[in-house]
Design a protein that fits this description.
Layout: H1 8-12, H2 31-39, H3 52-73, H4 80-95, H5 103-108, H6 112-115, E1 132-135, E2 138-141, E3 149-155, E4 171-177, E5 186-192, E6 198-204, E7 208-212, E8 221-225, E9 234-236, H7 248-259, E10 267-270, H8 273-281, E11 287-288, E12 292-295, H9 308-312, H10 314-328, E13 329-331, E14 337-341, H11 344-356, E15 365-368, E16 379-384, H12 397-406, E17 416-419
Antiparallel strand pairs: 1-2, 3-4, 5-6, 5-17, 7-8, 9-17, 10-12, 11-12, 13-14, 14-16, 15-16
Helix pairs in contact: 3-4, 7-10, 10-11
């Protein structure tokens, strides 16, 4: 794992030395040592916790291995003897607290994630703990993931090292480790996403971003810090692949949730929606009249949003959203997608389901205050990024056909977010 190592003879001098942990309480406990063991000491293969000299060794070996690898790769001068002398001095000074890397450096430098998988994400400068990040389990607050190893969504588009061009532009899941919370000088950043919604986040001043100013081809991108961001800068955006099939029961749930009777479990549909009923429930389970298709005694749970394990199952959630869109969704003449409801609080919850699957949706907006049936009736609507779904998303033929005419085979709008 390490191309450079401090000598065993040198390290042996520190195994029995006790660092000066500073202030101790009445019971003789060093606050510094407690903080170190809680926050920066990693669990070893034998189940024990790292001691301070072992953390210093891991960090310095990692630092100098990266330097050595860089020199060898780029045919730069490297002297093992000089490096050993320099590394021993760095170790000794670190052991005595005369210098210190950031907390994420103590926690992650020299670990397999950094040294073997070449993933430096955990060493990068931080975002605010309230920032939500896309994980395999959905959107999670960064502060709630403190000290955990997770998988986050990233893209190799513009991700090649040293500004080389990356060939693979598809989104992928990458292993990452969330270091412990620190205080740093920060800036507040506002941006607009691809459906026109504004968002604000807080990042450290030296957090790094890939941005584009003008040409959105790969050659037009560069890496800058938060302090260098400008109004009009463009940042890349990615979405997770939906490579799983939608649940049939999820589709039934979503379709009923949109149009079924939540009081008695009755479900009746007319016109083109009748064909959806047949595809979801089978003609043998339905009652047909001249004008409608009906099924009764639907589960009362279908009158509520997915909960528990159903909420966590992406196949079920995808099916639910497909069914709900078939009931309350619309595809306009330009291929634009939207969902409307008189219950804005439900649209907010449904929006979270879309976002967990990586499908971008606007916040609900009031579009009407009356209807043909009632003078005072609010109608709320949210827009869906049509480029984030496929033809399989649509259960109604008319929806699918409109979407295909305006979307399939067309040039996709690039998913970029814009600095404000």
């Amino acid at each position: 794992m390490f191309s450079f190592r401090l000598s065993d003879e040198f390290i042996s001098q520190y195994k029995d030395r006790e660092p000066d942990w500073g202030y101790r309480d009445a019971a003789g406990n060093a606050v510094g040592e407690i903080t170190f063991l809680r926050t920066y000491s990693r669990v070893k293969d034998d189940g024990g916790k790292e001691r301070w000299y072992e953390v210093c060794e891991r960090v310095v070996n990692g630092m100098y291995s990266i330097q050595k690898d860089h020199c060898k790769t780029n045919r730069l001068p490297w002297n093992d003897h000089k490096a050993q002398v320099s590394a021993q001095e760095a170790f000794d000074r670190l052991f005595q607290f005369k210098w210190m890397p950031p907390g994420r450096g103590l926690w992650m430098m020299g670990t397999p994630l950094v040294m073997v998988e070449r993933n430096s994400a955990a060493l990068q400068n931080p975002l605010h703990e309230d920032t939500k990040v896309m994980t395999r389990e959905g959107w999670r607050r960064l502060g709630d993931l403190e000290g955990q190893d997770i998988e986050v969504l990233t893209s190799t588009h513009l991700y090649a090292r040293d500004h080389q061009l990356a060939e693979n532009k598809t989104a992928k899941w990458a292993k990452a480790s969330v270091s412990f919370i620190e205080e740093q000088p920060s800036v507040r950043i506002t941006y607009r996403d691809t459906v026109g919604e504004e968002h604000t986040l807080v990042a450290s001043r030296n957090h790094r971003w890939f941005v584009c100013r003008g040409d959105v081809s790969q050659k037009g991108w560069k890496r800058i810090t938060s302090e260098e961001l400008q109004e009009g800068d463009i940042l890349p955006s990615v979405k997770p692949p939906i490579n799983y099939k939608a649940s049939l029961s999820g589709r039934q749930h979503g379709f009923f949730f949109g149009d079924g009777s939540r009081t008695d479990g009755e479900f009746k549909q007319f016109g083109s929606s009748g064909a959806v009923m047949v595809s979801l429930f089978g003609s043998q389970n339905l009652t047909f009249t001249d004008r409608s298709v009906r099924i009764g005694q639907c589960p009362s749970a279908w009158g509520f949003l997915p909960e528990g394990r159903y909420r966590e199952d992406k196949r079920y959630v995808l099916g639910f959203l497909q069914g709900y869109f078939a009931a309350d969704g619309c595809v306009d003449g330009n291929g634009g997608m939207s969902i409307s409801s008189a219950r804005p609080e439900e649209l907010v919850a449904v929006r979270d389901l879309f976002l967990d699957l990586g499908i971008e949706v606007s916040r609900p907006k009031l579009v009407s205050t009356s209807s043909n049936y009632k003078e005072e009736r609010e109608l709320w609507q949210m827009r869906i990024n049509r480029w984030d779904v496929t033809a399989d998303f649509f259960l109604k033929d008319e929806h699918r056909e409109r979407w295909i005419r305006k979307t399939l085979g067309k040039s996709r709008k690039n998913k970029y977010i814009h600095m404000l």
